Amino acid sequence: MKPIQWGILSTGGIAETFARGLKTSKTGVLAAVASRTRRAAQAFAQKYHVPKAFGTYQELLDDPGVEAVYIAPPHPFHAQWAVLAARAGKHILCEKPLTMDYPDALKVVEAARRNRVFLLEAFMYRCHPQTAKLVELIRGRAIGEVRLIQASFCFDKPLDLKHRLFNRKLGGGGILDIGCYPVSMSRLLAGAALGRPFAEPLEVKGTAVVGQKSRVDEIALASLKFPGGILAELSCASRVDRGTSMVKVDGSKGSLIVPSPWFATWDPGTSYLLLRRKGEKKERKIPVHSDRNLYTVEADAVAASLRKGLRESPAMPWADTLGNMRVLDLWRKSAGAFY
Ligand SMILES: NC(=O)c1ccc[n+]([C@@H]2O[C@H](COP(=O)([O-])OP(=O)(O)OC[C@H]3O[C@@H](n4cnc5c(N)ncnc54)[C@H](OP(=O)(O)O)[C@@H]3O)[C@@H](O)[C@H]2O)c1
């Protein structure tokens, strides 16, 4: 089959990561890149051998040769460009969080539905075989009934008010940028425990430290209560390193630990899930192999859905994205993190 002709909107950090991921994809090629400035687009095009470089995002959307776009500016600009991309008939892989809040996410989903284009929020870990294995183990009751989910995404970054993470105008704040991962993981795993693709919490309680200088949330906690008596304990931080970002699921018959839940091995390689079952002296190490880079896997997941004629990906259907955005709104509200 002919490879998907991709276009990337923006030339920032994750745009570069995705361009490298596409290089080793057999299902897609990078046909065009767009930046707010022609010079940045041309530099990016030269570095990644991209045939077309545009000095505005709209020019890329107007190019009939581009089939799918990867939307990668800071989150306040996702909604606008995703809606315009849908109207231009482009399939969409849009960086997380899909938008700044639930109402805007609904607009994007409606635009995709109306224009009959594919749309996936770019949670790369959802496309990775490690996550599929984790879901399989929980569904198969490897740890019995799930009772408690812990998930965190934390790092310590020096305060830099120009960086988008600490800049309110660029959607700064940890809950939206990294808290979206633990929320999405807890909803996925609670769903797996309940025999559904994902689950919605009955209660969301959050708190956060909002930086005095940045005025965005820098350290945040949330507790979620799901149906079936499942609780989740979530954390995200841009100003404190908890040692590791991890996921742990405790059940009636044991625990599952994911030492590297968001990036696995990043490059091709073998990552591990750890299974500690009650009554077993030794922890079991469950290997999961990926023959491709994390972002290659993501691009290939989009291609696989497109080949089947799907408009939503099983990795993260639209209702799942909307549910995630709704929980992020509730977390931010209870933590006092507003824009
Ligand atoms: N899935 C993942 O692993 C992952 C990792 C990191 C980030 N992300 C997500 O990807 C998005 C971008 O993050 P990033 O780390 O790549 O950011 P970044 O390095 O700061 O790059 C953002 C790019 O967006 C474009 N842009 C458009 N309007 C802008 C504006 N008003 N101000 C600044 N830049 C603007 C710029 O490219 P041009 O000048 O070329 O237009 C800029 O280079 C965020 O939504 C983030 O949540 C995802």
Write down the CATH topology of the largest domain.
Answer: Dihydrodipicolinate Reductase, domain 2
Uncertain segments are: none
Written as H for each helix and E for each strand, in order along the chain, the element string is EHEHEHEHEHEHHEHEEEEEEEHH
Secondary-structure arrangement, i.e. CATH architecture of the largest domain: 2-Layer Sandwich
Q: Report the biggest beta sheet as strand number plus sense, adding barrel if it closes.
A: 8 strands, mixed
Q: For the largest beta sheet, what order do the strands appear in spatially?
A: 8-9-10-7-11-12-13-14
The number of domains: 2
- CATH class division of the largest domain: Alpha Beta
How much of the polypeptide forms β-strand, as a percent range? 25-35%
Rg, nearest Å: 20 Å
Helix content: 25-40%
Fourth-tier CATH superfamily name of the largest domain: Dihydrodipicolinate Reductase, domain 2
Please tally the β strands and state the result.
14
Q: What is the arithmetic mean of pLDDT?
A: 97
Broad shape: globular
Cofactors, ions and other ligands in the entry? NADP nicotinamide-adenine-dinucleotide phosphate
Helix/strand structural class = alpha/beta
Rounded to the nearest angstrom, the distance between the terminal CA atoms is 45 Å
Helix segment count?
10
